[in-house]
Structure formats: C-alpha cells, structure tokens
Amino acid sequence: MATLDIRDLHVSVNTDEGAIEILRGVDLTISSNQTHAIMGPNGSGKSTLAYSLAGHPKYQVTQGSVTLDGEDLLAMTVDQRARAGLFLAMQYPVEVPGVSTSNFLRTAATAVRGEAPPIRKWVKEVKTAMKDLEIDPEFAERSVNEGFSGGEKKRHEILQLSLLKPKIAVLDETDSGLDVDALRIVAEGVNRYKAAAQADGEGVGVLLITHYTRILRYIHPDRVHVFAGGVVVESGGPELADELETNGYVRFVGAPAAAV
Amino acid sequence: MTAVVETSPAQHGLTGHSHIGGRTAAKPDSHLHGSGSADLADHPVPSGREENWRFTPMRRLRGLEADAPFQGVIGEDNDTVVDAPEGVLVRRVIGDEAAALKGQAGQLPTDRPSARAWAASSTVLLIDVPAQLEVTEPVVITFLGTTASKATAGHVIVRVGPHAKAQVAMVHEGSATLTDNIEIIVGDGATLEFASMEEWAGDAVHLSHHHIRVGRDATLRHTALTFGGDLVRVVGTVSYDGPGGDADLTGLYFADAGQHLEHRLFVDHAVPNCKSRALYKGALQGAKAHTVWIGDVLIRKAAEGTDTYEMNRNLILTQGARADSVPNLEIETGEIVGAGHASATGRFDDEQLFYLLSRGIPAELAKRLVVRGFFGEVLLHIGIPSVRERAAEIIERELAISGI
Questions:
Q1: Listed residue (B265, B252, B263, B319) closest to B291, CA to CA
Q2: d(Cα B363, Cα A78) in Å, to the nearest integer?
Q3: Nearest-Cα residue of chain A relative to residue B353
Q4: Quick one: fold of A3-259?
Q5: Is residue B116 in some structural domain?
Q6: Smaller CB count within 10 Å for chain B: N or C?
Q7: For strand B260-269 and strand B290-299, is the pairing parallel, antiparallel, or unpaired?
Q8: Which domain holds residue B327?
C-alpha cells in the first residue's frame, strides 16, 4: 500500500514578468488501488500539478508539502522521485535523438529496479508489453519518441508505465489527441497495469488528469476532482464526471479563482 | 556564446556556363561565391574582413593566406601512406601529368590558400577507382606530419569511375602547417563514401579545400570529422554533373580550449533533380574554443526539382566557448521539391534531460545518454566502420575532459 499526500501545495512559475502563482493550495490524497480523475478547464493548473509532482525545474513550490508513504517527495531530485515509485506520463513526451528506445527502457528499468533485469527475462517482458500495446517491435531500435506519431508517443508512455511499475502514476492528458482506437489501446494498457499491480499486492494509485470525460468510460475513477484557478473546487464520486459531461465547466468557472 | 542565423533568399545571378580545362571557369555568379581561379593574381592577400574570412583568426594562419614559403618536404617533414584494396590504383603523379590532372572536379580555387596550394603542389596523389569496380574494403589515406614549422602544399584526387562503388578515408595526424586541395569526382551512377578525419596534434594548422563533383545519378556520402589541431578550416564545394545526383554531407567536430575549427560548405545546385543534405554537429568545451559552420546552398534557375536541407547543431558544454553558425539559402527557382535549413546552438537540452530523469535515470547517466545521443545521430551516418569506431573513441576521450 502506498499513499501520495498533497497538502496545501502552492506552486509558482517564473516568467519575464516575475513569478506567477499557478497552484494556490491543493489538497489531495491518493492511495494504492484508487483512481482519481482531475478534471478542469484549460489553464486551471492541472499540468502544473503533474510537473510539480515530478519535479520539473520550471516550477517552484512556495508552500505546502507532498509526501509519498511519509517521505518528503519535494526534497527529492527528479530521478529520486521516480525511483521512489512516482511515474509521470507526459502530455508531450520529449524526443531524445540518438538514444534508442530499447537502451532507454533498459536503463530506466535498471535505475528504478535497482539492478539490471536479467536479459532473457527482460527481452520477453518488453516484447509482451509492446505486443499488449500494439507497438511495432521495430520501435525498440528507433530513437526515443523521435518521429513517433501522437498516438505512438502516448502508447510509449504507457509501455514505460507497465515496465517501471510505479506505486503512483500521474497521467497528464494521456487521452489528448488520440482517436478512439488509440484511446482504447492506451486505456486498456492502464487498466492492465492496475490489475497486475493489484494482483502483485503492491497496487497502484492513479492520478488521471484530463480535460474530457471520454477516457473515464474506459478507466473508471473512484474519485473525481474539479480543478479551477489552481485549487480543487469540488470533489465527488464518478457522478461528478457525468455532470461535467452534461454541463461542462460553466458552474465552476464562475468562481473567482477561475480568472486564471 | 553566440549563435548567428542568417538567411538570404535573395535573387541574384547572371547567365553563363562553366567550362573546365582553362585557367578560369566562368560561372554564373552567386553573391555567396565568386568564380574560381587558379591564378594567384586573382586572389589578393585577405585582411580578415572579407565575408569568407571574417570568422577566421588570421594571425594563426602562419602566413598560409599570404606568402609563407612551402618548405615542407614529402617523405621527410610529412608522409602520406595509402592502404588500398585490390583494384584501386594509387599513384603519385608528377610534372606535366600532375598539372594536367588538376581541375578534374570542374572547380578552381576560390580563396588564396587554395590557389597557392594549387600552384605550389608539384605532385598529385591520385586514387583511381576504375569504372564498375565495387570494393567493400576502404581506401585509407593517412597523412602524417612531423613538423609544424614548415608549410606544405598538397593535392589529392579521388576519382571514382562510372558505376563503381568505394569507400575512402583520409586521416590526418601529427604536426603540420598544411594547405591542400582534395578533388573528389564521383562518376555517373557511382557511389562514394568519403570521410576526412582531422586528428592532428595540438600545433597543427590545416586549410583544406574539398572540390566535389557528383555525377549523374551518383551518390556521395561525405563526412568531415574534426577534432585535433590548433586551427582547422575545411571548405567543401559540391557541384553536380547531371540529374539524379545525391550528396549527403555530414560532419562532427569537437573543439577544446583555444581550438578554432571551421567548416564551410557551398552546395551549388545548377542542374535539375539533385538532392543535398547537410547535417553537422559540434560540441565545444573550454575557454576560447571556437567553431564556425557556414552552410551555403544555391539553387540556380535551371535546378528545378532540387531537394535540399541543411542542419547544424552545436552543444556548448562549458563557459567561454563560442559557436558561430550561418546557414544560407539562395533560391532562383520556385520549382523545387524542398529547401530548408535549421541551426541551433545551446547547452544541454533541459527537456530531454528532464524526461530521462523522470524515468529514474540518475543525472550523470542521463547527461551521458543525451550527449552520446547528440553525436550518435551523426556517427550512425558514417558508413566506414573503422572510421566510425575511431570517431566514437575520440568523442569518449573528449567527453572525459569535461567529466561527462
């Protein structure tokens, strides 16, 4: 069992006009075997939350705390956070020319697992995971994300999720830009990992950040949080997503914080 | 650190034609490059303010750009060793025969050091790959200099006959003050993989001029690998004989403290349906490490169906280094497949680094992966295995200096 505890998190981003506060006191607790959906209009700070948790240097935490199983996540470097069990599936995965996908995956798995996986077992593991996500085996020899289509990049993110086996997975708009087939493949990949993690006894807590309700038909959330103006303005069960599907964010952008 | 990007889509040009064999080849003028000439009188001593010299530290040229006497003796002050597979003819040609051979590539010197070497080199090293011969082992030409105190002029002709296939590597080692002309002729339908490696000792100065002629339906892969020397300047000019020519130009350079490494390319698209690609990558470390990359591409009016793209990227590893990068495109016809260029100079790519870190990869290892990935793209382009391996080893050695 793992728990990610976010308390009163304030985050600023530095711009030419000085620091601008984006997150204004976020409180969230996510435990293993739970899926939380964070929904909100553009500019509400959803991605800032994702990148702040992963430790992107662009974002400065000015107040509050984040702990993973009681350990101070904010005191860790980016790579330490990943090795502690946090994974961020990025909205815009970065191309790394000249680094082959297979080399990258093995290097990351070695770092996260603390030892190099035995080669034969590893090859089989990668092959199976790629097949599950309908990724062409020749991708392994291509440079990381280079020349991948939008859908291929997202599937590659979920491939990493299944190989790095995090305790907490943050999926930042993994559904954006995907057609129905690609969305289904990606969502099934997430569900497969959730089931596998639960069967292992470890479990995974999923923080699913999205603008649309579409992905929630495939990945069922236990809790839904509406994000606006850098804070959680309302939390509820799956029925809250249904309301958003019908009414959109109108009810929430009327709040003063929605000026952002 | 500076990164200069200039583009000149200017229309400029006169009609005319090239002819070979005379003292001068009258060519339609581009504002980028004047007509070549073997007559020294056409090349006054440059002051350093000229467009094609403005990045070069003239005082470090040891008079090669002016009138420094050529006193280096072949076989004494330097030696050239050729290791060639069976079927490839290697000869050192002298006298009138040598003089008659010069200009095979259809180009004449466009700067004074080139013109001086043209006039002064009494011999020509001729590498002949007969028509239709396909060799899988590379020809390796090794220039070994033993002194930098005497200047040497050189002339090499690499001639690949029609429909032949060959690999040629030129490796420069030791100490020298050298200016030379390398004529590279790729016959119709032929394929040449050419690599030039500058692996000099720290006191070498080398001004090299590659005159490249790509035949009809011929393929050239040309790689410039520049690591050693105090000052190295490689000027490459590419012209095409007929449609279907394909020139793939890559380069890798690594400048340490005080080094000046300069690459200038001029790709002259004067016939239709030819292709050119340039991909040059460089890294710099240490105070006053300086690199210059100039990529000029001219698409003349007749060159319809041209497809060209050039890219230069520089990675600055420490403070105090400077990379100048100037891609330049002149287009005189709109009937082309594509024309573009890109140039970027920067430090580590922070987003790439973050991506790797966020997967648990420790910072030191992530940096190594990003930097090796940066070079890997060009290394993979090198088709001669022994050259590729040596370049990879040199890069490891260079990176060890910065502890990466």
A1: B263
A2: 9
A3: A96
A4: Rossmann fold (3.40.50)
A5: yes
A6: N
A7: parallel
A8: 40-348
